[in-house]
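The instructor's notes for this session suggest beginning with a concrete chain rather than abstract definitions. Hand out the sequence below and ask the class to guess, before any prediction is shown, which regions might be ordered.
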Amino acid sequence: MQIDKQGKLAGKVAVVTGASRGIGEAVAIRYAMEGAKVVVAARTLNDGDHVLPGGIAATAESITAAGGEAIAVTADLAVDADRRALISTTEETFGPVDILVNNAAVTYYAPVHEFSEKRFRLMMEVQVWAPFQLAALVLPGMLERGSGWILNVSSHAAIHPEKTAGRPGGAVYGMCKAALERFTTGLAQEVYGKGIGVNVISPGLVATPGALHHNLITPESKFPITPVEHMAEACLRLVYGDAQALTGRIDYADAVMEEFNLTAASLD
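After discussion, reveal the predicted structure:
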Protein backbone atom coordinates (compact mmCIF):
# COMPACT_ATOMS: atom_id res chain seq x y z
CA MET A 1 0.00 0.00 0.00
CA GLN A 2 1.41 3.39 -1.02
CA ILE A 3 0.09 6.51 0.70
CA ASP A 4 0.02 9.75 -1.29
CA LYS A 5 -0.69 12.52 1.21
CA GLN A 6 -1.16 14.92 -1.70
CA GLY A 7 -3.56 12.57 -3.48
CA LYS A 8 -7.11 13.08 -4.73
CA LEU A 9 -8.54 13.04 -1.19
CA ALA A 10 -5.75 14.93 0.53
CA GLY A 11 -6.91 16.31 3.87
CA LYS A 12 -10.42 14.91 3.54
CA VAL A 13 -12.08 13.08 6.43
CA ALA A 14 -13.83 9.87 5.40
CA VAL A 15 -16.07 7.54 7.40
CA VAL A 16 -16.44 4.02 6.00
CA THR A 17 -18.85 1.63 7.68
CA GLY A 18 -18.58 -2.13 7.46
CA ALA A 19 -14.82 -1.73 7.12
CA SER A 20 -13.65 -4.81 9.02
CA ARG A 21 -13.36 -6.89 5.86
CA GLY A 22 -14.32 -7.14 2.20
CA ILE A 23 -15.54 -4.08 0.34
CA GLY A 24 -15.45 -1.70 3.29
CA GLU A 25 -11.87 -2.59 4.14
CA ALA A 26 -10.80 -2.15 0.50
CA VAL A 27 -12.53 1.24 0.19
CA ALA A 28 -10.98 2.50 3.43
CA ILE A 29 -7.51 1.50 2.26
CA ARG A 30 -8.00 3.07 -1.19
CA TYR A 31 -9.18 6.35 0.31
CA ALA A 32 -6.22 6.42 2.69
CA MET A 33 -3.89 5.83 -0.25
CA GLU A 34 -5.21 9.08 -1.74
CA GLY A 35 -4.52 11.07 1.42
CA ALA A 36 -7.81 10.82 3.29
CA LYS A 37 -8.01 10.56 7.06
CA VAL A 38 -10.14 7.47 7.43
CA VAL A 39 -12.43 6.32 10.21
CA VAL A 40 -13.10 2.61 9.83
CA ALA A 41 -16.23 1.43 11.58
CA ALA A 42 -17.86 -1.94 12.21
CA ARG A 43 -18.99 -4.17 15.07
CA THR A 44 -15.90 -6.37 14.80
CA LEU A 45 -12.82 -4.84 16.41
CA ASN A 46 -10.37 -7.72 16.22
CA ASP A 47 -9.95 -10.74 13.98
CA GLY A 48 -11.54 -13.66 15.78
CA ASP A 49 -14.35 -11.61 17.32
CA HIS A 50 -16.71 -12.67 14.51
CA VAL A 51 -17.46 -15.83 12.59
CA LEU A 52 -16.00 -14.10 9.52
CA PRO A 53 -12.31 -13.13 9.38
CA GLY A 54 -11.10 -9.56 9.80
CA GLY A 55 -11.51 -6.60 12.12
CA ILE A 56 -11.36 -2.81 12.00
CA ALA A 57 -8.28 -2.70 14.23
CA ALA A 58 -6.30 -4.54 11.57
CA THR A 59 -7.69 -2.30 8.82
CA ALA A 60 -6.66 0.86 10.68
CA GLU A 61 -3.28 -0.60 11.63
CA SER A 62 -2.46 -1.51 8.04
CA ILE A 63 -3.17 2.09 6.98
CA THR A 64 -1.14 3.72 9.74
CA ALA A 65 1.73 1.27 9.22
CA ALA A 66 1.93 2.48 5.62
CA GLY A 67 2.07 6.11 6.73
CA GLY A 68 -1.59 7.00 6.44
CA GLU A 69 -4.05 8.26 9.03
CA ALA A 70 -6.85 6.06 10.35
CA ILE A 71 -8.69 5.15 13.51
CA ALA A 72 -10.97 2.23 14.28
CA VAL A 73 -14.33 2.98 15.89
CA THR A 74 -16.41 0.05 17.08
CA ALA A 75 -20.03 0.73 16.17
CA ASP A 76 -23.14 -1.42 16.03
CA LEU A 77 -25.17 0.44 13.44
CA ALA A 78 -28.36 -1.07 14.82
CA VAL A 79 -27.83 1.10 17.91
CA ASP A 80 -28.69 4.81 17.86
CA ALA A 81 -26.04 5.76 20.41
CA ASP A 82 -23.32 3.99 18.39
CA ARG A 83 -24.31 5.80 15.20
CA ARG A 84 -24.15 9.17 16.93
CA ALA A 85 -20.90 8.31 18.67
CA LEU A 86 -19.32 7.31 15.36
CA ILE A 87 -19.83 10.78 13.93
CA SER A 88 -18.95 12.65 17.13
CA THR A 89 -15.74 10.62 17.57
CA THR A 90 -14.78 11.33 13.98
CA GLU A 91 -15.31 15.05 14.44
CA GLU A 92 -13.36 15.10 17.72
CA THR A 93 -10.44 13.19 16.20
CA PHE A 94 -10.12 14.42 12.62
CA GLY A 95 -12.73 17.16 12.16
CA PRO A 96 -15.95 17.41 10.10
CA VAL A 97 -16.87 14.53 7.83
CA ASP A 98 -16.18 15.19 4.14
CA ILE A 99 -17.03 11.71 2.84
CA LEU A 100 -19.52 9.18 4.22
CA VAL A 101 -19.59 5.65 2.80
CA ASN A 102 -22.56 3.59 3.98
CA ASN A 103 -21.40 0.05 3.36
CA ALA A 104 -22.39 -1.87 6.50
CA ALA A 105 -25.08 -4.52 6.23
CA VAL A 106 -26.72 -7.25 8.27
CA THR A 107 -28.26 -9.81 5.96
CA TYR A 108 -30.48 -12.83 6.40
CA TYR A 109 -31.96 -14.98 3.67
CA ALA A 110 -35.30 -16.71 4.21
CA PRO A 111 -38.64 -16.96 2.36
CA VAL A 112 -41.11 -14.22 3.26
CA HIS A 113 -43.46 -16.57 5.10
CA GLU A 114 -40.59 -17.71 7.31
CA PHE A 115 -38.92 -14.33 7.85
CA SER A 116 -39.02 -13.22 11.49
CA GLU A 117 -40.03 -9.70 12.46
CA LYS A 118 -36.86 -9.35 14.55
CA ARG A 119 -34.60 -10.05 11.59
CA PHE A 120 -36.71 -7.88 9.27
CA ARG A 121 -36.46 -4.90 11.62
CA LEU A 122 -32.73 -5.41 12.13
CA MET A 123 -32.06 -5.42 8.40
CA MET A 124 -34.13 -2.28 7.88
CA GLU A 125 -32.40 -0.61 10.82
CA VAL A 126 -28.87 -1.28 9.57
CA GLN A 127 -29.34 -1.06 5.82
CA VAL A 128 -31.93 1.74 5.55
CA TRP A 129 -32.32 3.77 8.74
CA ALA A 130 -28.60 3.82 9.65
CA PRO A 131 -27.51 5.30 6.28
CA PHE A 132 -30.36 7.81 6.55
CA GLN A 133 -29.43 8.87 10.07
CA LEU A 134 -25.70 9.01 9.43
CA ALA A 135 -26.34 11.18 6.39
CA ALA A 136 -28.58 13.43 8.47
CA LEU A 137 -25.83 13.78 11.07
CA VAL A 138 -23.12 14.84 8.60
CA LEU A 139 -25.26 16.94 6.26
CA PRO A 140 -25.44 20.14 8.37
CA GLY A 141 -21.65 20.48 8.28
CA MET A 142 -21.49 19.65 4.58
CA LEU A 143 -24.17 22.22 3.80
CA GLU A 144 -22.38 24.84 5.88
CA ARG A 145 -19.08 24.21 4.06
CA GLY A 146 -20.73 23.78 0.67
CA SER A 147 -18.99 20.49 0.00
CA GLY A 148 -19.23 16.80 0.76
CA TRP A 149 -19.88 13.33 -0.60
CA ILE A 150 -22.21 10.53 0.46
CA LEU A 151 -21.82 7.13 -1.17
CA ASN A 152 -24.23 4.28 -0.45
CA VAL A 153 -23.33 0.70 -1.31
CA SER A 154 -26.20 -1.21 -2.87
CA SER A 155 -26.57 -4.46 -4.78
CA HIS A 156 -27.97 -5.86 -8.00
CA ALA A 157 -30.61 -7.30 -5.67
CA ALA A 158 -32.32 -3.89 -5.84
CA ILE A 159 -33.25 -4.59 -9.46
CA HIS A 160 -36.72 -6.10 -9.91
CA PRO A 161 -36.29 -9.83 -10.53
CA GLU A 162 -37.60 -11.67 -13.53
CA LYS A 163 -40.92 -13.48 -13.19
CA THR A 164 -39.26 -16.86 -13.13
CA ALA A 165 -38.45 -19.32 -10.40
CA GLY A 166 -35.26 -18.42 -8.61
CA ARG A 167 -33.41 -18.81 -5.35
CA PRO A 168 -35.84 -17.95 -2.51
CA GLY A 169 -35.00 -15.73 0.43
CA GLY A 170 -33.80 -12.50 -1.15
CA ALA A 171 -36.99 -10.42 -1.06
CA VAL A 172 -36.14 -8.49 2.13
CA TYR A 173 -32.53 -7.88 1.10
CA GLY A 174 -33.65 -6.59 -2.29
CA MET A 175 -36.26 -4.36 -0.64
CA CYS A 176 -33.65 -2.82 1.66
CA LYS A 177 -31.31 -2.05 -1.22
CA ALA A 178 -34.11 -0.65 -3.38
CA ALA A 179 -35.05 1.68 -0.52
CA LEU A 180 -31.42 2.74 -0.16
CA GLU A 181 -31.23 3.58 -3.86
CA ARG A 182 -34.42 5.67 -3.76
CA PHE A 183 -33.12 7.50 -0.70
CA THR A 184 -29.89 8.23 -2.56
CA THR A 185 -31.53 9.81 -5.59
CA GLY A 186 -34.00 11.69 -3.40
CA LEU A 187 -31.23 13.16 -1.25
CA ALA A 188 -29.17 14.00 -4.33
CA GLN A 189 -32.10 16.05 -5.61
CA GLU A 190 -32.60 17.67 -2.21
CA VAL A 191 -29.02 18.96 -1.99
CA TYR A 192 -28.40 19.49 -5.71
CA GLY A 193 -26.36 22.60 -6.43
CA LYS A 194 -25.10 22.84 -2.84
CA GLY A 195 -21.72 21.22 -3.41
CA ILE A 196 -22.71 17.78 -2.15
CA GLY A 197 -22.58 14.66 -4.29
CA VAL A 198 -24.79 11.71 -3.34
CA ASN A 199 -24.43 8.45 -5.21
CA VAL A 200 -25.08 4.75 -4.94
CA ILE A 201 -22.90 1.96 -6.25
CA SER A 202 -23.35 -1.78 -6.62
CA PRO A 203 -20.30 -4.02 -6.69
CA GLY A 204 -21.63 -6.86 -8.76
CA LEU A 205 -20.50 -10.08 -7.12
CA VAL A 206 -17.32 -9.75 -5.06
CA ALA A 207 -15.72 -12.76 -3.40
CA THR A 208 -15.90 -11.22 0.07
CA PRO A 209 -16.02 -13.34 3.25
CA GLY A 210 -19.71 -12.48 3.56
CA ALA A 211 -20.55 -13.55 0.02
CA LEU A 212 -18.76 -16.83 0.53
CA HIS A 213 -20.46 -17.36 3.89
CA HIS A 214 -23.91 -16.99 2.30
CA ASN A 215 -22.95 -19.26 -0.62
CA LEU A 216 -23.66 -16.48 -3.12
CA ILE A 217 -20.83 -17.52 -5.41
CA THR A 218 -21.80 -20.71 -7.21
CA PRO A 219 -21.49 -22.07 -10.76
CA GLU A 220 -25.02 -20.74 -11.31
CA SER A 221 -24.16 -17.17 -10.23
CA LYS A 222 -25.78 -14.70 -12.62
CA PHE A 223 -23.12 -11.98 -12.38
CA PRO A 224 -19.38 -12.22 -13.06
CA ILE A 225 -16.98 -11.88 -10.15
CA THR A 226 -15.84 -8.29 -9.57
CA PRO A 227 -12.35 -7.88 -8.08
CA VAL A 228 -12.57 -5.97 -4.81
CA GLU A 229 -9.89 -3.60 -6.14
CA HIS A 230 -12.27 -2.55 -8.92
CA MET A 231 -14.99 -1.76 -6.40
CA ALA A 232 -12.56 0.29 -4.33
CA GLU A 233 -11.42 2.24 -7.41
CA ALA A 234 -14.99 2.93 -8.49
CA CYS A 235 -15.89 4.07 -4.98
CA LEU A 236 -12.95 6.45 -5.07
CA ARG A 237 -14.04 7.96 -8.37
CA LEU A 238 -17.50 8.78 -7.01
CA VAL A 239 -16.24 10.95 -4.13
CA TYR A 240 -14.18 13.64 -5.82
CA GLY A 241 -14.60 16.14 -8.63
CA ASP A 242 -17.60 18.30 -9.53
CA ALA A 243 -20.36 17.31 -7.12
CA GLN A 244 -23.02 18.99 -9.23
CA ALA A 245 -22.09 16.93 -12.28
CA LEU A 246 -21.40 13.69 -10.42
CA THR A 247 -24.48 13.12 -8.28
CA GLY A 248 -27.73 11.19 -8.18
CA ARG A 249 -26.14 8.22 -9.92
CA ILE A 250 -27.10 4.58 -9.50
CA ASP A 251 -23.85 3.04 -10.63
CA TYR A 252 -22.15 -0.31 -10.94
CA ALA A 253 -18.46 -0.89 -10.33
CA ASP A 254 -17.69 -2.32 -13.76
CA ALA A 255 -19.55 0.51 -15.51
CA VAL A 256 -17.66 3.17 -13.53
CA MET A 257 -14.35 1.50 -14.33
CA GLU A 258 -15.20 1.57 -18.04
CA GLU A 259 -16.75 5.06 -18.15
CA PHE A 260 -13.79 6.76 -16.51
CA ASN A 261 -11.17 4.43 -18.01
CA LEU A 262 -9.88 3.50 -14.58
CA THR A 263 -7.10 1.13 -13.68
CA ALA A 264 -7.45 -0.43 -10.25
CA ALA A 265 -4.59 0.30 -7.87
CA SER A 266 -3.06 -2.50 -5.84
CA LEU A 267 -4.20 -2.43 -2.22
CA ASP A 268 -1.21 -4.40 -0.94
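Then share the key points. Confidence is low (pLDDT under 50) at residues 210-215. The longest helix spans residues 117-145.
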